[in-house]
């Protein structure tokens, strides 16, 4: 019987220099769901939270949302549940899970969204709370419990939004969708990342129905639930950095390693064929030549209809005094290391831009572009080049064009290149 999940660990090098005081080694821990296993499709329990502030009437945004929600209603099965919430200054439940079983009711409700008397401001926390309450009515560990939040503006009470996500992350994941350029992308990214959901930047309102369709397809392809990577470090081994490396790139921060040298990384639900990866930057102590196990790792997960399971793996290296051996690197791991480095450069450039340090930001973006060109990542190169052009023209991020270009660059650079079929072909050809 084929296992539902593969779990592997790849080190950037099989050899470590014995005399090095602080030898840096990269380790990729990657879980891949092979397919549906024995459980079939996981039923969905969704809460859709929609911004209906005054700005949502611009560029036909609300009309595209209406189209997207109707698509969602038409494509849910009898096992699925959904609720619809609209928010502005207040929040209103437009369709409860029970009401949404009548697809025509959902369509009528969404058609009447502009008739709701809920003000014109943006109180996203109120909308999130109402969406969470509706999802909890049908909360079930055998369902995918997720809240989808769509907004196009800055919100009051940002801390409350973060708290709601944090307090409910063990039961509910959150996918966030930012439309236009006025929303706080850092807030939406944090909410989705902290709960192992997805963040979507929507530059063109016409993309809204497609984003909803992609989100639904992704949820339907989930075959492994509640993934967690546990790591036990050997004596003297330290974690300098940890990054989520797939399906998106973002920092997991510096972990608090306990006295027993254990650390865990939640990676959430896995779609079939889409790896869930963590890239560790380790610092190794000097040792005498010979083989050494540097860490033990296990991937814990649930297969719907089957139960909990785990896969275990050790990572060992050979300590040596031969520098030529330590210079040999694993191409796939170093490819991801380069992608993470580019994402870090882009993020640092953004910080410099916001601080008004245009020259520093331009140099950082230029370095990032050199990396994307070296990797033949055409999409990321074009996105960074467009951002550089905007910065040179405007010397600021305050214009709509500059902010749009920045958000587009963020989205492209954060996407793991190995998931792009064309990029993968190129990499395999050059490997």
How far apart are the first and last residues' alpha carbons, in Å? 32 Å
Strand composition percent: 25-35%
Count of discrete alpha- or pi-helical segments spanning 4 or more residues = 12
Mean pLDDT: 90
Give the total of beta strands.
16
The total tally of domains equals: 3
Instruction: State the fourth-level CATH superfamily of the largest domain.
Output: von Willebrand factor, type A domain
* Class per helix and strand makeup: alpha/beta
Looking at the overall shape, the CATH architecture of the largest domain is 3-Layer(aba) Sandwich
How are helices and strands ordered from N to C? EEEEHEEHHEHEHEHEEEEEEEHHHHHH
Subunit organisation of the chains: single chain
How is the CATH topology of the largest domain named? Rossmann fold
CATH class of the largest domain: Alpha Beta
Poorly predicted segments: 419-431
Main pleated-sheet profile: 6 strands, mixed
Can you tell me the overall shape? globular
Helix content: 25-40%
Strand order in the largest sheet: 6-5-4-7-8-9
Radius of gyration from the alpha-carbon trace, in angstroms? 23 Å
